């Protein structure tokens, strides 16, 4: 039985739509990197733009594309989550002949071993983020990113408490501290590589101190001392990350886009503190 293609009918109001598609599909993806096979339970969203002449997109095609790439996993070896998103975006344009732009994005929890201040091994979780946008006429852009939870100690309150308690300026003072959530996204130019593990290392090194799921008392004490020896504003954390990115990825071209966001879940305030920088590496280098 031939069914009417309702999606292809003209809409009542003829406006172009920027993104139409499906969100939050859960799929098991395997990444092959540095001799390891990394399983990720990814949450994937897939979109195309919709012209003003068409009522709707054929959304089942988006799901078909994502399912097809899952079926490729045993034979096709993807070295990064951003590469999977690029593949999906390119296939979306093939399936949606009326679209000019396709976008695929995903996030997944990622687990790896870390070492506490006193040398204990613990498994910590992070978020990996990936995005690819493909334009039918002018190329592709893909990004890889991470979200990391660390800690920050307030330098302003530390100086104030030193004055109140009449402490030696060189001594580590007391201050309020809080968890800090950092999100980093970096463009991955064609022919270059950006490693999510590197980004995690950069972020963890840029907090007042990292955080851990598992700590014994001596770990806790060492971590609190480290945090207060290195007080930082949210602004400091963003700037530290930017500086470390420039050092680590000096080989990337100037037009490479980078996004860094830092949000502190304030302990003595009812609000959060936030800082952000969106720039190309060239702008940061100048």
Quickly describe the structure.
This protein is α+β, with helices and mostly antiparallel strands and 286 residues long. It contains seven helices and nine strands, in the order ββααβββαβαβααββα.
List the helices and strands and how they pair.
Layout: E1 17-33, E2 36-50, H1 59-72, H2 81-95, E3 101-115, E4 121-135, E5 139-153, H3 155-165, E6 177-187, H4 196-204, E7 209-210, H5 217-229, H6 234-248, E8 257-264, E9 273-280, H7 281-285
Antiparallel strand pairs: 1-2, 2-3, 3-4, 4-5, 5-6, 5-7, 6-8, 8-9
Structure write-up:
This protein is an alpha+beta fold. It has two domains: 14-107, Urate Oxidase (Roll); 138-286, Urate Oxidase (Roll). The protein has seven helices and nine strands. It has helices spanning 59-72, 81-95, 155-165, 196-204, 217-229, 234-248, 281-285; strands at 17-33, 36-50, 101-115, 121-135, 139-153, 177-187, 209-210, 257-264, 273-280. Strands 1, 2, 3, 4, 5, 6, 7, 8 and 9 form a nine-stranded antiparallel beta sheet that branches. Helix 1 (59-72) crosses helix 2 (81-95) and helix 4 (196-204) packs across helix 6 (234-248). The radius of gyration is 23 Å and the shape is elongated. The model has no long low-confidence stretch (mean pLDDT 95).
Order of SSEs? EEHHEEEHEHEHHEEH
CA radius of gyration: 23 Å
- Give the overall shape: elongated
So what's the CATH class of the largest domain?
Alpha Beta
**Overall mean confidence score, pLDDT:** 95
Structural class computed from helices and strand pairing: alpha+beta
CATH-defined topology of the largest domain:
Urate Oxidase
Q: Can you count the beta strands?
A: 9
Number of domains: 2
């Amino acid at each position: 039985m031939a069914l009417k293609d309702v999606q292809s009918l003209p809409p009542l109001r003829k406006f172009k739509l920027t993104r139409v598609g499906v969100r939050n599909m859960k799929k098991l993806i395997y990444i092959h990197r540095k001799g390891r096979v990394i399983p990720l339970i990814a949450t994937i969203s897939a979109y195309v733009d919709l012209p003003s002449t068409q009522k709707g997109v054929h959304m089942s095609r988006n799901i078909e594309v994502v399912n097809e790439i899952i079926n490729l996993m045993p034979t096709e070896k993807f070295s990064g989550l951003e590469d999977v998103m690029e593949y999906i975006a390119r296939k979306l344009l093939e399936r949606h002949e009326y679209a000019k732009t396709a976008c695929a994005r995903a996030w997944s929890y990622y687990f790896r071993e870390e070492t506490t201040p006193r040398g204990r091994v613990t498994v910590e979780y992070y978020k990996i983020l990936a995005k690819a946008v493909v334009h039918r006429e002018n190329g592709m852009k893909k990004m890889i990113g991470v979200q990391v939870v660390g800690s920050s100690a307030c330098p302003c309150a530390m100086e104030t408490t030193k004055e109140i308690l009449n402490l030696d300026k060189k001594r580590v003072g007391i201050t309020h501290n809080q968890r800090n959530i950092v999100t980093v996204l970096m463009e991955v130019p064609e022919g270059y590589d950006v490693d999510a593990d590197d980004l995690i290392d950069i972020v963890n090194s840029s907090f007042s101190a990292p955080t851990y799921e598992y700590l014994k008392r001596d770990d806790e004490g060492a971590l609190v001392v480290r945090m207060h020896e290195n007080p930082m504003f949210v602004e400091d954390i963003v700037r530290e990350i930017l500086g470390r990115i420039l050092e680590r990825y000096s080989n990337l071209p100037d037009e490479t886009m980078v996004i860094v966001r830092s949000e502190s879940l304030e302990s003595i305030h009812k609000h959060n503190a936030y800082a952000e920088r969106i720039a190309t590496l060239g702008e940061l280098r100048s």
